[in-house]
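so im writing up the methods section and need the Spermatogenesis-associated protein 20 record in one place, dumping it here so i stop losing it
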Amino acid sequence: MAKVLMLIDSDENFLCQRQPVLSSMSQQGGVATAYVCQDFTCSLPVTDPQELRRLLLDWTMEMGTE
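--- predicted struct ---
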């Protein structure tokens, strides 16, 4: 299973022009914001590091990897 980590600067429109769905994934509350995506579906925005950790751990358990 491929894993990809992307950092998109809100001022960078190159990717957003080519992938419009990325435009809807914006920073929330002025803090770093993550979206965990799998099988063409993404989580709601996550700003809490512990919640992000939980989502990623759940995903790795579901995939059977550590």
